[in-house]
Fold this sequence. Notes:
This protein has helices at 2-24, 28-40, 52-68, 73-78, 80-105, 111-121, 127-135, 140-167, 174-203, 209-229, 234-252, 255-282, 284-292, 298-336, 338-353, 359-381, 385-393, 400-406, 416-445, 452-474, 489-501, 518-542, 547-570. The chain is mostly helical.
Amino acid sequence: MELTLVAVAGIVSIVVVAALSHRIGVAAPLSQVVVGTALSFLPGVPHIVIEPELVLAGVLPPLLYAAAVRMPAQDFRRDFKAIAGLAVVLVVLTTLGAGFLFNALLPGLGLASAFALGAIISPTDAVAATSVGRRLGLPSRLLTILEGEGLVNDATSLVLLSSAIAATTAAVSFWTIGLDFLYAVVAATVVGIVIGQLNVRIRALLKDSILNTAISFVLPFVAFIPAEAIHASGVLAVVVTGVVTGHQSPRYLRATDRVTEAINWSTVSFLLESGLFLLMGLQLKTVLDDAHASGPGIATTVGIGLLASVLAIGARMVYVAPLVAGQHRDASRAEAAQPQVDAVQARLDEMIQSDELSERQKKRFTVRFAKRKSDLKFQVAENFGWRGGVVLAWSGMRGAVTVAAAQTLPADTPFRPQLQLIAFIVAITTLLLQGLTLPWVIRKAQVPGDDRAADREEFGDLLTQMSASALAHVDDPDLRMPDGTPYSPEILDRARQELAVRQTRPAARATASMVGLREQYVQLRTEILGIERQELLTARTLGLYSSRVLTRAQDALDSEEARVSRFVEES
């Protein structure tokens, strides 16, 4: 009964704090940390000790999966260089810099343990930054980079942490660490791709949304456990699984399955994220008491933590400057390459018209060139400049993973309680300092958001393309039902009317009056939706439209397909 009351009180507290945070305009994770910290100092509140394995192997995989499955694979690919730089290169540099700092300030700690702590404080948590950014209208590309960094950098940090811990008991060379890191990344990627592909194909055989969602709840662990078993990065395997699943699910899973899964995962993700930040605050009193019991004084430890926070923030600022300059350079090169692109396009059209290429070559070259052309267009149109760089540099908040990772340090690590407090100070300082001031930074930087007018125009173009393909199917004189009988002219006219108004509003719902023609209507609408979905997937493959426009169209198709599916179930 006591455990039930604690669970109920925890969920109610999470919801109340989140609701109040929304009303006062503060990111919910920040409020959860503040409330948890305040509660930890109240008389009678017990010391909170969370098993790190519960966070790193129990909470982190589903959180990463929930975020990765929403990540457009096209955007992740286009910004992979920036994401990899922040999630790998910056984490490694911060680990080295912080390691040397800790080794100098804590004599007797040892370089390996110092690097372990450096790895612990290096990864950022993008939850607070993206929640603030979405509310204030940051451009989608900037949010994608922040989310992608948050997905990948935990893997980098945990691999470096395990290597550093191993180095405390045996001699480990940088060459060995590099090979171990490479193996962990490659093996985890392979595991993630395999699990993701098997997942969508197996779940496609199930025609029940509840069963599909139930399987999705264990999927993060299905990817995490085997990756860890072969000493690869479990969290990276989860991320790859999520990205593959999100990219492939429109091809294999029913719309009703995807809609149901998205709603359920949003709820699970909200509770896990909020609970994690609340528990992070609740642990402060425990961490302070443990650090006070031995070793250097609290003031000295807090001072080292603040210095480490300055180093982490400064390292990010220094690194982001050339990263943004490189993006600007890429955009300039993409714009300068436009005449060459037009020349190649003309030559390709000429070769296609003169039948110099086989059908297979035509398709392959057309797809590859269209993707390349779209990528260049993206580089020019989505360049966020130095203003976005300022926001990116100030979005390096650490989170609960840093606190949990600190608790995995071996029991015989010198100054272990102090190291845990230092990690907590870095997490709480960056989270509150940067998180609470990020809205002000965004407003002062005046980062231009997405071009809504251009998005509406793109969305109309995409709907026109999808409707044209579907209309060609409806107008096919050989169109028949599966049993070979022709469709009623009334049903065909209705389908044409719905396609004509599709660009402005969803299809009308007045189908109940057509009871006698219900079977024909459902069959034809299902075929039309399938053709439109295929056209959408083709446009996604070619990269012809922005991911936010593709996602909007995908949601519209899912909603309509779910409605038609319910219509079938009622028949």
